[in-house]
Amino acid sequence: MKMHKSWLFAAALLGGAALAASPAAAQKKYDPGASDTEIKIGNTNPYSGPASAYGVIGKTITAYFNKVNAEGGINGRKINFISYDDGYSPPKTVEQARKLVESDEVLLLFQTLGTPCNTAIQKYMNAKKVPQLFVATGATKWNDPKNYPWTIGWQPNYQSEGHIYAQYLIKNHPNGKIGILFQNDDYGKDYVKGLKDGLNGKLPIVAELPYETTDPTVDSQIVNLKASGADVFFNVTTPKFAAQAIKKAAEIEWKPVHLLNNVSNSVGSVLKPAGFDNSKGILTTIYLKDPTDPSWKDDAAYKEWAAFMDKYYPDGDRTSTFTVYGYLVAQTLVQVLKQSGDDLTRENVMKQAANLKSLELGMLLPGITVNTGPTDFAPIKQMQMERFSGEKWERFGPVLTGGGGAS
Amino acid sequence: MKEDLALAHGLAARRLPFANLLAGWRPAAIAVGLVLIVLLPFVAKNFFIFQLTLALIYAIAILGLNLLTGFNGQFSLGHSAFYAIGAYTAAILMDQADMPYYWTLPAAGLVCLVSGFLFGLPALRLEGIYLALATFALAVAIPQLLKSTPLEPWTGGVQGVVIIKPDAPFGLPINSDQWLYFFTVAVAIVLYVCAINLVRSRTGRAIIAIRENPIAASAMGVNVSLYKSLTFGVSALYTGIAGALGAIAVQFVAPDSFTFFLSIALFVGLIVGGVGSIPGTLVGGLLVLFVPNIAEEVSKGLAGAVYGVILILVIYVMPSGAAGLARLLAGQFARLRR
Amino acid sequence: MELLLHQVLAGLATGGIYACLALALVMIYQAIDHLNFAQGEMAMFSTFIAWQLMELGTPYWIAFVVTLAISFVAGVLIDRVLFRPIHDAPILSHIVVFIALFGILNSLAGFIWDFNVKNFPTPFGSRPLLGSGLISSHDAGMIGVTILLLVFLYVFFRHTRIGLAMRAAAANPQSARLAGIRVGWMIALGWGMAAAIGAVAGMLIAPVVFLEPNMMTSVLLYGFAAAVVGGLTSPGGAVIGGFAVGIIENLAGTFIPYVGRELKLTIALFLIVAVLLVKPAGLFGRRVVSRV
Questions:
Q1: Could you tell me if A238 and A213 are in contact, meaning their C-beta atoms sit under 8 angstroms apart?
Q2: Structural domain containing residue B248
Q3: Residue range C119-129: average pLDDT?
Q4: Does any CB of chain A come closer than 8 Å to the CB of residue C3?
Q5: In which domain, by residue range, is A55 found?
Q6: pTM of the model
Q7: C-contacting residues of B 159-198, CB under 8 Å?
Q8: Residue A2 maps to a domain
Q9: Domains in chain C: boundaries
Q10: I need a surface site. Which of A223, A292, B157, C155 has the fewest CB within 10 A?
Q11: Chain B: closest CA distance from residue A89 (Å)
Q12: Number of structural domains found in chain A
């Protein structure tokens, strides 16, 4: 009867092994940074230096994750959001990114801000196979799943936006002469390329003037633009310079068709200092609900956002679209993490990031959804145009899809 | 001034001022130091090794600045320009000419030697604050030039250039961070030994003499113009090699990585380490890298203010830099021994 | 030619900004013999104080005067508290303290008032001057105030006892003490005046560039260049230097083909360096000849 017992024993062992190998027990998988109780997420933002105005985004995201944690976390896990200052300097971003990945051992990097900063860490992130999710830049090059499968953008990219403006001009101002003011870096040049590609030569560009972030003012460029005879003004500037440009144009009584890039369409940060009267008639694109637009006053999603700001980020600037941006992008990540369930490996998280189907987020404009796929790393592609009435932005026209794709 | 004269005397006597003190201990101390340096990468995390490598690179850059400002008295706010030139030379050669990384260092050094010398020639006429402005102009100009359209085919314009970090050669069982650390340490040792020898030689004395009293120096037969320009060149060479190493370590160069804020950081590192002190540059390098991180940990919102306060405290405690403090302590210690 | 005229006028306008700050830089240089890298940040901080006062309801001119007073006192305090303990330290160490001050003021301003741009009112109005599209009345006002300040400084240094005492204290502290001048307090006075002038500069500049913690960083570059090209010992030179820098920069940007626009700052700075090579002490500076 000993034989029977040893057979039973062996059978039991085999059975136990089979059970252990069954899918039911293989559910929880973790890569560094994830555990039963927490998910560590890394981020770099410019809290100091020339781009510090964008630090608001990092603060909004921190506040949102506090809310998520207060409400129980994601699948029972709390988010540990570690955000370092990189001062918008690429070598510092490299250092901080390495610190997050190698020292803090985060699961992924999220919303790292700045085109040059993200360029600096892109190869490293992909070599290390750590997700670089929803980067805070609209540069077109993040939509490249074939070469950089671990890097994905979020906002509509700059070239798409340029295309939209081009289509608008071709349709409404076919005889216009275009003058461009652009920041002399990746971001500015990306927009210009988008506009040029979209125009395909149909309208002449009579002046294309760069400025540096070290310039105190862009007044000289505005004077030149007016002198060039341009009657269409493509304004690719960051908030401070956008305000200067709008003000100066009004001062020298230059009234072109004014296309303002999406980055600087904030009422509080740009139009108010520039002067509401001076800003009348400016056109831009938008893909989220501007909190200064009174038509959202009774909107449920807006109220939810306002309540969030009241409770978790009371110091935040309610007139700035950056806070809505931070809110939305944090919600997107939360969705990705929810979809990942208990399989919190980097590979699965990346897979889920590339698997967002018609995700509706309250503060996105009606009709705009987040969509990604294995060959589509451009989560938001749609925008709507709006015009400033002198008091507020007024959206018009249909929701458009920009044509600029992966480069 | 008194302290500077003492330094000159000390150097002229061909001994570091506290050499007396450490005479018996020196070989042992160096041996222990070398063992630590070699063992460190195997006990510390990769990321820390990467940071140490960067700190050492900044130390080399500060050493370059020290040769010019500390030993030769020419005030430069423009060394970020030479760092950038070195970095871009290395990056372009690696990216477009497929040059192996170790050859880029002499190449970067050579380019910077020449450009430093050429810049030093017209700068001969400028003194003090005016020279500061001229070098500052250089520091501001370089990022703009690197971004400019005519140079874009080589520099990659605003996009910059991405390069790959080299792996350990001969299939050694260490990773690329550790290898780069050893490589940097080796280069640093060579550069530091050369600098120490330079400073102690006749040339070095001539350089220091020019700082102390250019008229007396030229009366003694020193070709002031030649030496000043040469020092500019050598100083640029050092900082350029540091830049090349930096490019390899960070694996990315972009015009915005090399703004004049870098020049200011190097300058601060120089002062805190100790003007005219070669070992002090190591302290300076550590400061440039680690103090901003410490400041950020203290307070994210006020990191800049904390950094400023730390700097002020450091200057109060060590007005002549770390080297000055070391000298002071060594002096006290020697007095106690007697 | 109309473009040339426009660019020259625009250059005069921005040059006014640089001239203003350059005056403050020269002022402090006269007092302490080095350049205060934190001058721009001090001016920025003063402007924020003025803005805050106005936000609390103070009328413009009262806020202006109060800010000047606060800045003056702050300047004196910074000298007495920060720089007295290290007055024996080497010059280069002083510069590190300037840099530290820069960092502290910038970071503090960002923390208290955040980084969004704010509008700052101008007492001159922003309508184009005399109805012409050439130069706005604020720009003209700024140039006017700068020239007024310049005249004030000239009179102060040349024709008042205190001004003379300050110059003596800066030129030769030992002899000045022997002559009974309280050198320490002269230096503190110099700091206070520089801080006040900086505050004026900041309040004039903010309406043009918009108020935010980083607004003076770029102006400082140009102001520095302007002060040096004019000659650090000459307030008049600093003002002329400021206008010159503004005009050169605009003309370079407009008329040099192809690279002019991208390399404006570079070209302007190199022209300045060229000037210095010909006149190493600046256009109007005095060459100091010392006996050996």
A1: yes
A2: 2-337
A3: 74
A4: yes
A5: 30-156+297-376
A6: 0.85
A7: none
A8: no
A9: 2-22+29-124+133-220
A10: C155
A11: 6
A12: 2
